[in-house]
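Notebook p. 47: complex prediction with beta-D-mannopyranose.
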Amino acid sequence: MCFNKIYCLFLMVVITTVACDDQSEEKTGRQELIERLQSIKGKGILFGHQDDLAYGINWKYVDGQSDVKRVAGDYPALFGWELGGLERGDACNLDSVPFDVMRSLAIKASQNGGINTFSWHPYSLINGENSWNTDTTVVKYIIPGGEYHNEFIRQLDKLAVFLNSFQMEDGKKMPFIFRPWHEMDGSWFWWGSKHCTSDEFKALFRFTIDYLKNEKGMDQMAIAYSPDCSFNSLNEYLTWYPGDEYVDIVGMDNYYDLRVGGDVDAAIKKLQIVVGYTNQKGKISALTESGIENVADTTWYTQKLGVVLKDSLVAANLSYTMVWRNDPDVHFFFPYPGHPGAVYAKEFLDQDHIWLLNDLVESEK
Ligand code: BMA
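Predicted complex, structure tokens below:
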């Protein structure tokens, strides 16, 4: 009840101001990115390619070049990048991509309407070896309370300086997806299932995100959880899950089920588990990595990936998929013009529900 008219008026002004402030509060880059990925659900699945703009078959750092564009006529909608080596202060990542070049290419991709996602294969703080070296235990030493925890924080500091330096033309920080500690259900990385307990793993994941968000102000980052494909139930899938408050995108890496002689139905079943969780929790889902080395199965894009992404539950819910990099000396996962798989990759990408950059941009007009 108001005592007098002036007091009433004063109260109304205060209430209106607070309400207006709430409405005008700017969305964070993370929120904007999540909304974008939510809004394409059921309309299209973004196609992504690791290192797409950096190099491909018979070219390296050529402005505007992309193997996806050479074959399909447009850039991918999602661009993957790798941070391994940054934590040591290296100028180039473990695949020799200079971090400065990566920054300008990722900003360009984002400026043109694309979405960037970062993976991280860090070197071990214990023996200095790469992510695949499992000779020593690492995780328990770098989580809070561990002997190398402070050194781990210095590594995260380097990541934060780099990723916070990605600025858009309007001065805002570039939004992106961060996908740390991936394929933890396998045992090939030092953070894998045989090299730490699930509680240690969760502590690692949570600390990584808490530190980058809370101490380094990284509110432009959406987080992806992406085990490999060794699960058969939701329970198994969630064994290493750090919690809904830490994860925006639930994903799966799956090369295994889509290999020659693999089981496409198994891949579909597992993705159904992932998208089922998405629906239950209002999250985003993705096939975060897939491919076949050197496109050895020429019809892979139409007969394997294409079949998985046509499943009605998957098609109605999945937001993106990504194939791995095109390193001519090591391995490639997307065909080049003239490769016998190129025609099938194009056929796959020409489908209405598989989106390249222009499809995404057009959908947001
Ligand atoms: C792997 C391979 C390696 C590479 C690593 C990080 O799957 O492509 O050659 O160093 O990813 O990008």
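Notes: The pocket of beta-D-mannopyranose is lined by residues 82, 84, 94-95, 121, 324-325, 330 (CB under 6 Å). Residues 13-21 have pLDDT under 50 and may be disordered.
Next step: compare against the earlier run before touching the bench.
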